[in-house]
């Protein structure tokens, strides 16, 4: 756990950069849906929703990168990012295997990020309690 605390800046940079790749959905929503899920939604409403989804995910990635230089806000940022990733994982898993094959790698990476975020938060809590 000490390794995670000591390297959290780099963990957040990598996590944030990977999360920011979803800017693709804000720029090219149909292509992003086909690449990510192997399916697409049609119509102007789908364009709005998917672009917004991509922008919000990118903002979470930006927050993670911001948090690398602002340790006091890390607990909030890691909690928001972790919850966002857990919601995505839960929604995909709830659909069964329909999309799991397409987004399985993304889910795995997000799950690793969540575990690292939780380990950091618990480690920092223990360090504060010991002090």
Describe the structure.
It is a single chain. The chain is 82% helix and 0% strand. By secondary structure, the protein is mainly alpha-helical. α2 packs antiparallel against α5 (44-67), α5 packs antiparallel against α6 and α6 (74-94) packs antiparallel against α7 (100-130). It has 7 helices and no strands. It has helices at residues 2-6, 8-20, 23-27, 29-37, 44-67, 74-94, 100-130. The chain has one domain (2-130).
Low-confidence stretches: none
Number of helices: 7
Bulk shape:
elongated
Described by its quaternary structure, the protein is single chain
Q: Over all CA atoms, what is the radius of gyration?
A: 16 Å
Count up the domains. Answer: 1
- Report the helical percentage: over 70%
At a glance:
This protein is an all-alpha fold. It has helices at residues 2-6, 8-20, 23-27, 29-37, 44-67, 74-94, 100-130.
Which features characterize this protein?
131 residues, elongated, mainly alpha
Can you lay out the helices and strands and say which pair or pack?
Blueprint: H1 2-6, H2 8-20, H3 23-27, H4 29-37, H5 44-67, H6 74-94, H7 100-130
């Amino acid at each position: 756990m000490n390794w995670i605390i000591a390297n959290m800046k780099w963990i957040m940079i990598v996590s944030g950069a990977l999360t920011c790749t979803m800017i693709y959905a804000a720029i090219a929503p149909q292509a992003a849906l086909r690449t990510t899920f192997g399916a697409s939604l049609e119509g102007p409403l789908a364009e709005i929703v998917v672009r917004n989804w991509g922008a919000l995910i990118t903002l979470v990635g930006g927050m993670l990168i911001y948090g690398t230089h602002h340790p006091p806000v890390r607990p909030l940022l890691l909690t928001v990012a972790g919850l966002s990733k857990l919601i995505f994982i839960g929604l995909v898993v709830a659909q069964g295997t329909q999309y799991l094959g397409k987004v399985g790698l993304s889910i795995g990476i997000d799950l690793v990020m969540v575990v690292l975020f939780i380990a950091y938060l618990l480690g920092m809590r223990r360090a504060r309690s010991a002090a």
